Amino acid sequence: MEKKQSNKINAGRILVVGTQAGGKTAIVTKLAARTDSSMEYYEDFGGTIETEYLKVSFDEGNFYSLLLPIGGQEKWAKLRERFGSTAEAIVTILDSCTKQFWMNSLQQATSISGVLPYNNYPVSFIVTKKDLNDAITKEVSSFSESIVEGLARAKHEGVTFYSRGFRISQRSFKLNETGEIPFTQMEQIIVNALEHKYFTGLEPGNARKGDMLLQGFSLVNCRIFSRALTLALSYQAEPGDQMAILGLLNDMRPTMLELDTNWTDLGRKYPKAGSEPLIPVNISTDEIKNVILEKLLANETDINNFEKEINKMSYLTGWRHTGWEHISIFEEDGLNKASNLIRRIMGAISESEQADKFSLFDPIEELF
Ligand SMILES: Nc1nc2c(ncn2[C@@H]2O[C@H](COP(=O)(O)OP(=O)(O)OP(=O)(O)O)[C@@H](O)[C@H]2O)c(=O)[nH]1
Ligand SMILES: [Mg+2]
Question: What is the pLDDT of residues 301-343, one digit of tens each?
């Protein structure tokens, strides 16, 4: 029997950018899995190496687009720009539980702008982890109390952690008596405190093992959240450049100590980041609580302000903003919203215009 000619349309090669562990791979894999049951998202401390190519179908499979979640770590910056010149649209992922990293996600998108071959280029953003944003809001007092308890334990007993090289090795450190904790140590203290409270049956180095006691708070989420919180609680003796600090922190998924690295070594790659931030040892539960609510968890106003920034910079970037969604990948409704947004982007792709555009500017620097 003659095979029926396929009339599937490939409409769109869409780059998905944003900081490490914001949820790029998870959302695209979940969308791809709707029509390809062999696809499944796995938790991993590694994060995406380079990029993935994932096919997402629409309109009963007659229409599809290729989504490329590019590894969010800073080490893939060059790759991002190279892919930028062949992409037809960008989706920027923003983690709704770590809003002070948004600037870094935006920087990834604007770093591609200079090589975009189109005017009226469709750009959208998806704010992820809505479920976790709600869960942490409800649980914020327990989060803060657990961290203060973790700090007290660290003072009395020292801190134990597992560094992951070829082998997983147990290591430990004691706090010094200065009344201030260096960033690297505080990051580990917060991770340990939240793991102690919100997980059981952990296996060092394995992101898939153990039971999550707070729905949606994965071991990876625990690390990214702890890093963002540590940054928000800290101050620097010699203040560093904000973008350089964000770049430095966006170079690894596990904690710095778990990766056997430190601020000084990473600082060589990011000299403008300045000295290692410090956190006062006697921080209170109320301070932690306020910082989580005000500096980490995004609300509607934050999203609206971000949208304004995108619109404001469009005359520099040549972007055409095609909408946003705030979703959870664990809810059918969230996946539907993301899918509809991508379908809309595909419509906008057909309206963008080819342009000879080779400019070397940094829209973020020009605006701020
Ligand atoms: N609670 C919750 N967690 C999410 C959601 N989306 C993603 N995550 C979690 O976020 C973590 C990172 O997700 P990934 O998709 O691997 O992140 P990524 O952006 O691809 O990260 P890189 O590949 O390192 O750039 C994982 O633990 C996911 O389970 C969400 O909607 N809700
Ligand atoms: Mg990924």
Answer: 999 999 999 998 887 888 899 999 999 999 999 999 999 999 8
Residue type, 340: N
Residue extents of the structural domains in the chain: 9-130+299-367, 132-296
Question: Does an H or E element contain 147, and which?
Answer: helix 130-157
Tell whether ligand 1 has an atom less than 6 A from the beta carbon of residue 12.
no
Q: What is the CA(206)–ligand 1 centre distance, in A?
A: 16
User: For the CA atoms of the chain, what is the radius of gyration?
Assistant: 21
Per-residue model confidence as pLDDT tens digits over 257-278 = 999 999 999 999 999 999 999 9
* Residue count of the chain: 368
Structure-block tokens of residue 95 = 């983690």
CATH 3.30.70.3550 describes domain 9-130+299-367: no
Q: Ligand 1 within 6 A of 30 CB?
A: no
Question: Rounded to whole angstroms, how far apart are CA atoms 117 and 121?
Answer: 9
92 pocket-lining for ligand 1 (C-beta < 6 Å): no
CB 219 within 8 A of CB 44: no
Shortest-distance Cα residue to atom 11 of ligand 1: 21
Q: Return the closest-CA partner of residue 16 out of 84, 86, 91.
A: 91
Q: How far is CA 247 from CA 18, 63, 120, 244, 292, in A?
A: 12, 37, 28, 5, 21
